[in-house]
Amino acid sequence: MSIESTPQTKKGWRGWLGERFPIDVKVYEELAKEPIPKHMERWWFALGGTPLLLFAIQAITGILLTWYYVPRPDVAYESVQRITTQIPYGWWVRGIHQWGSQLMIITVVLHMLRTFTTGAYRRPRELNWMIGTGLLVITLSFAFTGYALVNDQLSYWATTVGTNMFAEIPIVGPIILQMIRGGMVVTADTMTRLYPLHIGALPTIIVTFIVLHVILIRFLGVTDLDKRERERLARAGKSAPANGKHEREASHFPFFPDHMMTELVIGMGVLIILVNLTILFPPTLGPHANPAETPSHIKPEWYFYPVFRWLKLFPLQLGLAGLGIGAACFVLWPFIDAFIEKRTGNRDVNVYLGFLVAVGAFVFILWELFALQ
Amino acid sequence: MDEAKQVGEEQGMTRRDFLMSAAMTTSLAASATVAASFGWQFVYPAVAQIPTVQVLALSLSKLPAGTSKVMKLGGNEVLLVNKNGAVHAISTVCTHLGCRAAWEESRRQFVCPCHVGVFDADGKVVAGPPPRPLGEFAVEVKAGNIYVAVPQKEGAA
Question: Complex ipTM, two decimals?
Protein backbone atom coordinates (compact mmCIF):
# COMPACT_ATOMS: atom_id res chain seq x y z
CA MET A 1 0.00 0.00 0.00
CA SER A 2 1.51 3.29 -1.01
CA ILE A 3 1.60 6.32 1.23
CA GLU A 4 -0.59 8.25 -1.21
CA SER A 5 -3.38 5.74 -0.80
CA THR A 6 -3.27 5.83 3.02
CA PRO A 7 -6.71 6.99 4.12
CA GLN A 8 -6.78 10.09 6.29
CA THR A 9 -8.33 8.67 9.43
CA LYS A 10 -7.92 11.68 11.71
CA LYS A 11 -9.10 15.18 11.13
CA GLY A 12 -7.51 18.52 11.97
CA TRP A 13 -3.79 19.03 12.33
CA ARG A 14 -3.20 15.45 13.49
CA GLY A 15 -4.68 14.15 10.26
CA TRP A 16 -2.75 16.67 8.19
CA LEU A 17 0.54 15.80 9.90
CA GLY A 18 -0.22 12.06 9.91
CA GLU A 19 -0.69 12.10 6.14
CA ARG A 20 2.62 13.88 5.56
CA PHE A 21 4.60 12.18 8.34
CA PRO A 22 3.10 8.68 8.27
CA ILE A 23 4.26 7.10 11.51
CA ASP A 24 2.08 5.22 13.89
CA VAL A 25 2.63 6.90 17.27
CA LYS A 26 1.20 3.87 19.07
CA VAL A 27 4.05 1.69 17.84
CA TYR A 28 6.54 4.07 19.44
CA GLU A 29 4.47 4.27 22.61
CA GLU A 30 4.58 0.49 22.85
CA LEU A 31 8.32 0.52 22.24
CA ALA A 32 8.81 3.09 25.00
CA LYS A 33 6.77 1.03 27.44
CA GLU A 34 8.67 -2.17 26.66
CA PRO A 35 9.23 -4.14 29.86
CA ILE A 36 12.80 -4.29 31.09
CA PRO A 37 14.25 -6.54 33.82
CA LYS A 38 13.62 -5.60 37.44
CA HIS A 39 17.31 -5.20 38.31
CA MET A 40 17.33 -2.04 36.16
CA GLU A 41 15.48 -0.27 38.96
CA ARG A 42 18.80 0.12 40.79
CA TRP A 43 20.69 3.33 39.94
CA TRP A 44 23.90 1.40 39.28
CA PHE A 45 22.14 -0.10 36.26
CA ALA A 46 20.75 3.20 35.00
CA LEU A 47 23.97 5.05 34.17
CA GLY A 48 23.87 4.61 30.38
CA GLY A 49 21.77 7.70 29.73
CA THR A 50 23.98 10.03 31.79
CA PRO A 51 26.88 10.32 29.30
CA LEU A 52 24.28 11.06 26.62
CA LEU A 53 22.86 13.91 28.68
CA LEU A 54 26.36 15.25 29.28
CA PHE A 55 27.19 14.95 25.59
CA ALA A 56 24.15 17.12 24.80
CA ILE A 57 25.41 19.71 27.30
CA GLN A 58 28.89 19.53 25.77
CA ALA A 59 27.44 20.07 22.29
CA ILE A 60 25.45 23.13 23.39
CA THR A 61 28.27 24.75 25.41
CA GLY A 62 30.76 23.80 22.70
CA ILE A 63 28.75 25.61 20.04
CA LEU A 64 28.52 28.64 22.33
CA LEU A 65 32.29 28.64 22.85
CA THR A 66 32.97 28.58 19.09
CA TRP A 67 31.27 31.98 18.84
CA TYR A 68 34.21 33.57 20.66
CA TYR A 69 37.06 31.08 20.35
CA VAL A 70 39.58 31.74 17.53
CA PRO A 71 41.49 28.59 16.47
CA ARG A 72 44.69 30.39 15.49
CA PRO A 73 47.77 29.81 17.68
CA ASP A 74 48.65 33.53 17.72
CA VAL A 75 45.28 34.48 19.21
CA ALA A 76 43.75 31.25 20.57
CA TYR A 77 45.06 31.81 24.09
CA GLU A 78 43.85 35.42 24.11
CA SER A 79 40.39 34.36 22.87
CA VAL A 80 40.10 31.81 25.72
CA GLN A 81 41.25 34.51 28.13
CA ARG A 82 38.56 36.83 26.74
CA ILE A 83 35.88 34.12 27.12
CA THR A 84 36.98 33.50 30.70
CA THR A 85 37.40 37.07 31.90
CA GLN A 86 35.44 39.44 29.64
CA ILE A 87 32.48 37.78 27.95
CA PRO A 88 29.43 37.84 30.30
CA TYR A 89 29.13 34.36 31.83
CA GLY A 90 31.89 33.14 29.54
CA TRP A 91 33.62 31.60 32.57
CA TRP A 92 30.40 29.73 33.33
CA VAL A 93 29.95 28.33 29.81
CA ARG A 94 33.63 27.34 29.65
CA GLY A 95 33.43 25.89 33.16
CA ILE A 96 30.38 23.79 32.31
CA HIS A 97 32.18 22.56 29.16
CA GLN A 98 35.37 21.75 31.06
CA TRP A 99 33.71 20.03 34.04
CA GLY A 100 31.17 18.41 31.70
CA SER A 101 34.00 16.68 29.85
CA GLN A 102 35.37 15.29 33.10
CA LEU A 103 31.97 14.10 34.31
CA MET A 104 31.33 12.55 30.90
CA ILE A 105 34.51 10.49 31.24
CA ILE A 106 33.55 9.46 34.80
CA THR A 107 30.02 8.42 33.79
CA VAL A 108 31.20 6.51 30.71
CA VAL A 109 33.76 4.65 32.85
CA LEU A 110 31.17 3.88 35.58
CA HIS A 111 28.71 2.62 32.97
CA MET A 112 31.40 0.43 31.41
CA LEU A 113 32.54 -0.82 34.81
CA ARG A 114 28.99 -1.92 35.58
CA THR A 115 28.65 -3.58 32.18
CA PHE A 116 32.00 -5.31 32.64
CA THR A 117 31.54 -6.60 36.18
CA THR A 118 27.99 -7.86 35.54
CA GLY A 119 29.06 -9.62 32.32
CA ALA A 120 26.42 -7.77 30.30
CA TYR A 121 28.76 -7.84 27.26
CA ARG A 122 28.34 -11.60 26.77
CA ARG A 123 26.82 -13.19 23.69
CA PRO A 124 25.04 -11.75 21.74
CA ARG A 125 26.15 -8.31 22.94
CA GLU A 126 29.85 -8.51 22.06
CA LEU A 127 29.58 -5.98 19.25
CA ASN A 128 27.78 -3.50 21.44
CA TRP A 129 30.58 -3.79 24.01
CA MET A 130 33.08 -3.00 21.25
CA ILE A 131 31.03 0.03 20.19
CA GLY A 132 31.05 1.06 23.86
CA THR A 133 34.84 0.85 24.02
CA GLY A 134 34.89 2.99 20.88
CA LEU A 135 32.71 5.54 22.67
CA LEU A 136 35.20 5.67 25.56
CA VAL A 137 38.10 6.25 23.15
CA ILE A 138 36.14 8.99 21.36
CA THR A 139 35.27 10.64 24.70
CA LEU A 140 38.96 10.65 25.69
CA SER A 141 39.88 11.98 22.23
CA PHE A 142 37.40 14.81 22.77
CA ALA A 143 39.14 15.64 26.05
CA PHE A 144 42.62 15.48 24.50
CA THR A 145 41.80 17.61 21.45
CA GLY A 146 39.76 19.96 23.64
CA TYR A 147 42.48 21.00 26.01
CA ALA A 148 44.98 21.21 23.17
CA LEU A 149 42.96 24.17 21.86
CA VAL A 150 43.49 26.39 24.92
CA ASN A 151 47.14 26.89 23.88
CA ASP A 152 48.53 27.27 27.36
CA GLN A 153 51.60 25.40 28.58
CA LEU A 154 49.61 22.28 29.46
CA SER A 155 47.98 22.30 26.00
CA TYR A 156 51.28 22.55 24.19
CA TRP A 157 53.17 19.89 26.13
CA ALA A 158 50.22 17.50 26.37
CA THR A 159 49.86 17.77 22.58
CA THR A 160 53.61 17.19 22.14
CA VAL A 161 53.66 14.13 24.42
CA GLY A 162 50.32 12.72 23.22
CA THR A 163 51.15 12.98 19.53
CA ASN A 164 54.69 11.66 20.08
CA MET A 165 53.17 8.43 21.38
CA PHE A 166 51.79 7.80 17.88
CA ALA A 167 55.33 8.04 16.48
CA GLU A 168 56.27 4.82 18.30
CA ILE A 169 53.72 2.74 16.36
CA PRO A 170 55.79 0.50 14.05
CA ILE A 171 55.99 1.51 10.36
CA VAL A 172 53.00 3.90 10.17
CA GLY A 173 53.76 5.81 13.39
CA PRO A 174 55.86 8.65 11.92
CA ILE A 175 53.31 9.13 9.12
CA ILE A 176 50.43 9.37 11.61
CA LEU A 177 52.48 11.79 13.72
CA GLN A 178 53.03 14.15 10.80
CA MET A 179 49.40 13.87 9.69
CA ILE A 180 48.14 14.92 13.13
CA ARG A 181 50.74 17.64 13.68
CA GLY A 182 50.83 18.95 10.15
CA GLY A 183 54.63 18.85 10.36
CA MET A 184 57.53 17.43 12.32
CA VAL A 185 56.78 19.37 15.51
CA VAL A 186 53.70 20.92 17.12
CA THR A 187 53.04 24.08 15.11
CA ALA A 188 50.26 26.41 13.99
CA ASP A 189 49.08 23.66 11.63
CA THR A 190 48.54 21.30 14.59
CA MET A 191 45.83 23.49 16.05
CA THR A 192 44.06 23.96 12.74
CA ARG A 193 43.98 20.17 12.44
CA LEU A 194 42.84 19.41 16.00
CA TYR A 195 40.09 22.06 15.96
CA PRO A 196 37.98 20.54 13.12
CA LEU A 197 38.58 17.12 14.69
CA HIS A 198 37.16 18.39 17.98
CA ILE A 199 34.14 20.24 16.63
CA GLY A 200 33.38 18.31 13.43
CA ALA A 201 34.81 14.83 12.98
CA LEU A 202 34.58 13.56 16.58
CA PRO A 203 30.97 14.76 17.11
CA THR A 204 29.93 13.06 13.85
CA ILE A 205 31.65 9.82 14.86
CA ILE A 206 30.30 9.85 18.41
CA VAL A 207 26.71 10.48 17.26
CA THR A 208 27.04 7.56 14.81
CA PHE A 209 28.38 5.31 17.57
CA ILE A 210 25.66 6.41 20.03
CA VAL A 211 22.94 5.67 17.47
CA LEU A 212 24.44 2.23 16.76
CA HIS A 213 24.78 1.58 20.51
CA VAL A 214 21.14 2.47 21.22
CA ILE A 215 19.83 0.57 18.18
CA LEU A 216 21.65 -2.58 19.34
CA ILE A 217 20.32 -2.15 22.88
CA ARG A 218 16.80 -1.89 21.45
CA PHE A 219 17.25 -4.92 19.19
CA LEU A 220 18.97 -7.15 21.73
CA GLY A 221 17.31 -5.83 24.88
CA VAL A 222 19.19 -5.47 28.16
CA THR A 223 20.67 -8.52 29.84
CA ASP A 224 18.22 -10.22 32.19
CA LEU A 225 20.66 -10.79 35.04
CA ASP A 226 18.09 -12.39 37.39
CA LYS A 227 17.09 -14.87 34.71
CA ARG A 228 20.74 -15.63 34.03
CA GLU A 229 21.31 -16.24 37.73
CA ARG A 230 18.26 -18.53 37.98
CA GLU A 231 19.48 -20.49 34.98
CA ARG A 232 22.93 -20.78 36.54
CA LEU A 233 21.40 -22.09 39.77
CA ALA A 234 19.22 -24.48 37.80
CA ARG A 235 22.27 -25.83 35.98
CA ALA A 236 23.91 -26.35 39.35
CA GLY A 237 20.78 -28.29 40.44
CA LYS A 238 19.88 -25.78 43.15
CA SER A 239 16.49 -24.64 41.81
CA ALA A 240 14.27 -24.88 38.75
CA PRO A 241 14.28 -22.12 36.14
CA ALA A 242 11.09 -20.07 36.30
CA ASN A 243 9.32 -19.39 33.04
CA GLY A 244 6.07 -18.09 31.66
CA LYS A 245 4.08 -14.91 31.41
CA HIS A 246 3.45 -14.42 35.14
CA GLU A 247 7.10 -14.78 35.97
CA ARG A 248 7.95 -12.20 33.28
CA GLU A 249 5.39 -9.73 34.60
CA ALA A 250 6.74 -10.10 38.12
CA SER A 251 10.36 -9.70 37.05
CA HIS A 252 9.96 -6.81 34.62
CA PHE A 253 8.83 -3.21 34.70
CA PRO A 254 8.12 -0.63 31.93
CA PHE A 255 10.95 1.44 30.46
CA PHE A 256 8.64 4.45 30.29
CA PRO A 257 7.96 6.15 32.61
CA ASP A 258 9.53 4.10 35.44
CA HIS A 259 13.09 3.59 34.20
CA MET A 260 13.08 6.95 32.45
CA MET A 261 12.34 8.55 35.81
CA THR A 262 15.40 6.86 37.39
CA GLU A 263 17.54 8.15 34.52
CA LEU A 264 16.09 11.64 34.97
CA VAL A 265 16.78 11.65 38.71
CA ILE A 266 20.40 10.60 38.07
CA GLY A 267 20.62 13.24 35.32
CA MET A 268 19.34 15.91 37.71
CA GLY A 269 21.92 14.84 40.29
CA VAL A 270 24.71 15.08 37.72
CA LEU A 271 23.54 18.53 36.63
CA ILE A 272 23.57 19.74 40.23
CA ILE A 273 27.12 18.42 40.65
CA LEU A 274 28.16 20.00 37.32
CA VAL A 275 26.83 23.46 38.15
CA ASN A 276 28.26 23.41 41.66
CA LEU A 277 31.69 22.30 40.46
CA THR A 278 31.68 25.13 37.91
CA ILE A 279 30.77 27.72 40.53
CA LEU A 280 33.09 26.41 43.24
CA PHE A 281 36.01 25.72 40.89
CA PRO A 282 35.69 28.11 37.93
CA PRO A 283 37.93 27.46 34.91
CA THR A 284 41.48 28.77 35.01
CA LEU A 285 44.13 29.38 32.40
CA GLY A 286 47.80 28.43 32.67
CA PRO A 287 50.74 30.41 31.25
CA HIS A 288 50.89 30.90 27.47
CA ALA A 289 52.38 28.00 25.48
CA ASN A 290 56.17 28.17 25.37
CA PRO A 291 57.86 25.56 23.15
CA ALA A 292 61.24 26.46 24.65
CA GLU A 293 60.43 25.43 28.20
CA THR A 294 58.55 22.55 29.79
CA PRO A 295 57.17 23.61 33.21
CA SER A 296 58.90 21.79 36.05
CA HIS A 297 55.77 20.19 37.54
CA ILE A 298 53.73 19.51 34.41
CA LYS A 299 50.99 16.90 34.58
CA PRO A 300 48.09 16.09 32.27
CA GLU A 301 44.44 16.18 33.35
CA TRP A 302 43.75 13.67 36.15
CA TYR A 303 41.98 11.14 33.88
CA PHE A 304 45.25 10.59 32.01
CA TYR A 305 47.19 10.03 35.26
CA PRO A 306 47.13 6.21 35.04
CA VAL A 307 48.71 6.32 31.56
CA PHE A 308 51.10 9.09 32.64
CA ARG A 309 52.28 7.10 35.67
CA TRP A 310 52.48 3.89 33.65
CA LEU A 311 54.82 5.56 31.15
CA LYS A 312 57.08 6.69 33.99
CA LEU A 313 57.39 3.14 35.27
CA PHE A 314 58.36 1.30 32.10
CA PRO A 315 60.77 1.87 29.21
CA LEU A 316 59.02 3.61 26.32
CA GLN A 317 58.49 0.71 23.91
CA LEU A 318 57.51 -1.70 26.68
CA GLY A 319 55.14 0.84 28.24
CA LEU A 320 53.43 1.64 24.95
CA ALA A 321 53.25 -2.04 23.97
CA GLY A 322 51.62 -2.74 27.35
CA LEU A 323 49.07 0.00 26.75
CA GLY A 324 48.36 -1.30 23.24
CA ILE A 325 47.91 -4.90 24.41
CA GLY A 326 45.74 -3.72 27.32
CA ALA A 327 43.55 -1.68 24.98
CA ALA A 328 43.20 -4.61 22.55
CA CYS A 329 42.22 -6.98 25.40
CA PHE A 330 39.71 -4.40 26.63
CA VAL A 331 38.03 -4.14 23.21
CA LEU A 332 38.07 -7.91 22.60
CA TRP A 333 37.24 -8.87 26.18
CA PRO A 334 33.88 -10.59 25.41
CA PHE A 335 35.71 -13.11 23.23
CA ILE A 336 38.58 -13.57 25.70
CA ASP A 337 36.04 -14.08 28.49
CA ALA A 338 34.15 -16.68 26.42
CA PHE A 339 37.44 -18.46 25.75
CA ILE A 340 38.35 -18.52 29.45
CA GLU A 341 34.90 -19.83 30.34
CA LYS A 342 35.12 -22.54 27.71
CA ARG A 343 38.53 -23.65 28.95
CA THR A 344 38.06 -23.35 32.71
CA GLY A 345 34.31 -23.04 33.29
CA ASN A 346 34.99 -19.88 35.33
CA ARG A 347 32.44 -17.13 34.71
CA ASP A 348 33.64 -14.70 37.37
CA VAL A 349 37.00 -13.58 35.93
CA ASN A 350 35.36 -10.33 34.81
CA VAL A 351 34.35 -9.49 38.39
CA TYR A 352 37.88 -9.91 39.79
CA LEU A 353 39.55 -8.28 36.79
CA GLY A 354 37.12 -5.34 36.74
CA PHE A 355 37.74 -4.76 40.44
CA LEU A 356 41.50 -5.07 40.01
CA VAL A 357 41.69 -2.65 37.05
CA ALA A 358 39.41 -0.12 38.78
CA VAL A 359 41.43 -0.21 42.00
CA GLY A 360 44.69 -0.11 40.01
CA ALA A 361 43.59 2.95 38.03
CA PHE A 362 42.45 4.65 41.24
CA VAL A 363 45.77 3.92 42.96
CA PHE A 364 47.68 5.29 39.95
CA ILE A 365 45.58 8.47 40.02
CA LEU A 366 46.26 8.96 43.75
CA TRP A 367 49.93 8.11 43.28
CA GLU A 368 50.33 10.74 40.57
CA LEU A 369 48.24 13.23 42.50
CA PHE A 370 50.46 13.11 45.57
CA ALA A 371 53.78 12.24 43.95
CA LEU A 372 56.50 14.86 43.96
CA GLN A 373 57.88 13.49 40.70
CA MET B 1 27.67 -18.78 -27.75
CA ASP B 2 24.00 -19.39 -27.16
CA GLU B 3 24.92 -22.04 -24.65
CA ALA B 4 27.16 -19.61 -22.76
CA LYS B 5 24.43 -16.98 -22.78
CA GLN B 6 21.99 -19.54 -21.51
CA VAL B 7 24.30 -20.53 -18.66
CA GLY B 8 24.76 -16.85 -17.76
CA GLU B 9 21.05 -16.28 -17.70
CA GLU B 10 20.54 -19.35 -15.57
CA GLN B 11 23.03 -17.97 -13.09
CA GLY B 12 21.22 -14.65 -13.00
CA MET B 13 23.81 -12.60 -14.90
CA THR B 14 24.21 -12.15 -18.64
CA ARG B 15 27.48 -11.29 -20.33
CA ARG B 16 26.19 -7.75 -20.88
CA ASP B 17 25.38 -7.43 -17.17
CA PHE B 18 28.77 -8.75 -16.21
CA LEU B 19 30.65 -6.36 -18.52
CA MET B 20 28.55 -3.45 -17.29
CA SER B 21 29.22 -4.31 -13.64
CA ALA B 22 32.93 -4.83 -14.31
CA ALA B 23 33.19 -1.47 -16.12
CA MET B 24 31.35 0.33 -13.32
CA THR B 25 33.44 -1.30 -10.59
CA THR B 26 36.70 -0.49 -12.42
CA SER B 27 35.63 3.12 -12.97
CA LEU B 28 34.64 3.47 -9.34
CA ALA B 29 37.93 1.96 -8.13
CA ALA B 30 39.93 4.26 -10.45
CA SER B 31 38.00 7.33 -9.27
CA ALA B 32 38.45 6.34 -5.62
CA THR B 33 42.20 5.85 -6.15
CA VAL B 34 42.59 9.28 -7.75
CA ALA B 35 40.50 10.92 -5.00
CA ALA B 36 42.48 9.12 -2.28
CA SER B 37 45.77 10.21 -3.89
CA PHE B 38 44.67 13.86 -4.06
CA GLY B 39 43.26 13.68 -0.53
CA TRP B 40 46.47 12.16 0.83
CA GLN B 41 48.60 14.91 -0.71
CA PHE B 42 46.21 17.53 0.68
CA VAL B 43 46.31 16.34 4.27
CA TYR B 44 49.95 15.24 4.40
CA PRO B 45 52.17 18.10 5.57
CA ALA B 46 54.07 19.91 2.83
CA VAL B 47 57.17 20.28 5.03
CA ALA B 48 58.13 16.77 6.02
CA GLN B 49 61.79 17.47 6.75
CA ILE B 50 63.13 20.41 8.72
CA PRO B 51 66.16 22.03 7.02
CA THR B 52 69.35 22.34 9.05
CA VAL B 53 71.20 25.64 9.39
CA GLN B 54 74.62 26.38 10.84
CA VAL B 55 74.45 28.97 13.60
CA LEU B 56 77.27 30.89 15.30
CA ALA B 57 77.09 29.96 19.00
CA LEU B 58 79.97 31.76 20.72
CA SER B 59 83.69 32.20 20.77
CA LEU B 60 85.68 29.14 21.86
CA SER B 61 87.52 31.33 24.37
CA LYS B 62 84.25 31.81 26.26
CA LEU B 63 83.85 28.05 26.74
CA PRO B 64 87.05 26.81 28.43
CA ALA B 65 87.71 23.07 28.80
CA GLY B 66 85.55 21.45 31.50
CA THR B 67 82.78 24.06 31.32
CA SER B 68 79.30 24.01 29.82
CA LYS B 69 76.70 26.58 28.79
CA VAL B 70 73.00 26.38 27.89
CA MET B 71 72.14 28.43 24.80
CA LYS B 72 69.17 29.09 22.48
CA LEU B 73 70.24 28.51 18.90
CA GLY B 74 67.72 28.94 16.08
CA GLY B 75 64.82 28.19 18.41
CA ASN B 76 66.57 25.13 19.86
CA GLU B 77 67.81 24.84 23.40
CA VAL B 78 71.35 23.44 23.32
CA LEU B 79 73.89 22.55 26.02
CA LEU B 80 77.40 23.31 24.82
CA VAL B 81 80.03 21.25 26.62
CA ASN B 82 83.80 21.61 26.26
CA LYS B 83 85.17 18.22 27.16
CA ASN B 84 88.97 18.31 27.15
CA GLY B 85 88.96 20.64 24.18
CA ALA B 86 86.27 18.78 22.20
CA VAL B 87 83.05 20.77 21.99
CA HIS B 88 79.72 18.91 22.05
CA ALA B 89 76.28 20.43 21.47
CA ILE B 90 73.56 18.41 23.19
CA SER B 91 69.85 18.83 22.47
CA THR B 92 67.54 19.24 25.46
CA VAL B 93 64.61 17.53 23.71
CA CYS B 94 63.89 14.42 25.76
CA THR B 95 64.11 11.24 23.70
CA HIS B 96 61.17 9.74 25.60
CA LEU B 97 58.18 11.78 24.42
CA GLY B 98 59.60 15.14 23.40
CA CYS B 99 59.45 17.39 26.47
CA ARG B 100 62.31 19.78 27.27
CA ALA B 101 64.79 18.29 29.72
CA ALA B 102 66.08 21.03 32.00
CA TRP B 103 69.81 21.30 32.72
CA GLU B 104 70.43 21.29 36.47
CA GLU B 105 73.85 22.75 37.04
CA SER B 106 74.03 21.69 40.72
CA ARG B 107 73.80 17.96 39.90
CA ARG B 108 75.18 18.39 36.35
CA GLN B 109 72.31 16.40 34.88
CA PHE B 110 69.37 16.91 32.54
CA VAL B 111 65.99 16.15 34.16
CA CYS B 112 62.86 15.85 32.05
CA PRO B 113 59.83 17.11 34.02
CA CYS B 114 57.29 15.01 32.09
CA HIS B 115 58.21 11.39 32.85
CA VAL B 116 61.31 12.05 35.00
CA GLY B 117 63.94 10.89 32.54
CA VAL B 118 67.46 11.78 33.79
CA PHE B 119 70.52 12.24 31.53
CA ASP B 120 74.14 12.99 32.39
CA ALA B 121 76.22 15.84 30.96
CA ASP B 122 77.05 13.71 27.91
CA GLY B 123 73.34 13.12 27.25
CA LYS B 124 73.44 9.45 28.32
CA VAL B 125 70.39 8.03 30.10
CA VAL B 126 70.99 7.78 33.85
CA ALA B 127 67.47 6.98 35.07
CA GLY B 128 63.86 6.83 33.95
CA PRO B 129 62.14 5.60 30.79
CA PRO B 130 63.94 7.38 27.87
CA PRO B 131 64.98 4.85 25.22
CA ARG B 132 68.17 6.55 24.00
CA PRO B 133 70.66 9.35 24.82
CA LEU B 134 69.86 12.97 24.08
CA GLY B 135 70.45 14.05 20.52
CA GLU B 136 73.65 15.79 19.55
CA PHE B 137 74.10 18.55 16.97
CA ALA B 138 77.10 18.73 14.65
CA VAL B 139 79.70 21.22 15.89
CA GLU B 140 82.37 22.98 13.87
CA VAL B 141 85.04 25.30 15.25
CA LYS B 142 86.14 27.87 12.67
CA ALA B 143 88.53 30.75 13.34
CA GLY B 144 88.09 30.40 17.09
CA ASN B 145 84.28 30.42 16.91
CA ILE B 146 81.86 27.57 17.65
CA TYR B 147 79.23 26.88 14.98
CA VAL B 148 76.36 24.44 15.59
CA ALA B 149 74.16 22.88 12.90
CA VAL B 150 70.58 23.00 14.26
CA PRO B 151 67.17 22.36 12.70
CA GLN B 152 65.43 25.52 11.53
CA LYS B 153 62.26 25.59 13.61
CA GLU B 154 58.85 26.07 12.02
CA GLY B 155 56.57 28.75 13.44
CA ALA B 156 56.14 27.61 17.02
CA ALA B 157 52.66 27.50 18.47
Answer: 0.81
